[in-house]
Description:
mainly alpha; elongated; 7 helices; two-stranded antiparallel sheet; single chain
Amino acid sequence: MQCQECGKRPATLHFTKFVNGEKTELHICETCAREKGEMLPGTAGGFSIHNLLSGLLDFEPRNQTVKPPAGKCGTCGMTYTQFSKVGRFGCSDCYKHFSERLDPLLKRVHGNTVHVGKVPKRAGGHLKTKREIERLKKEMQGRIEREDFETAAQLRDRIRELESEMSG
């Protein structure tokens, strides 16, 4: 197969891109790929995990205008641009300072902005109780909406019981 760009050299690189649900295939030679700025695995300017993460960090949600966080972190002085190049924050306060920009990124990468994974047995009793209370509150709200007030009252009593255990 010949290069689709120059038509002179054999196509040695085959790219498949999906943009907005449209599939585009490109068959080009290495020279044309360099000229077009395509990423070449195994070359000096090639693919790297850092470039992948940097691309994720520059993510802008569709149909939303999110301003880049203004200024620097008050504790370490890091900017969001520096973070996107380095791939890690300078201190724990960066998470708070850049939270507006991180929430869409975390939601895209992890599917959620709240940790819902496993809880260590040694330190997890308090957290498990909090999660149980949240679950019961949601269930109670659903029972109230369905006008099942007897079950809702039982759930309310269980929530109060768990809350008193946590505080006592």
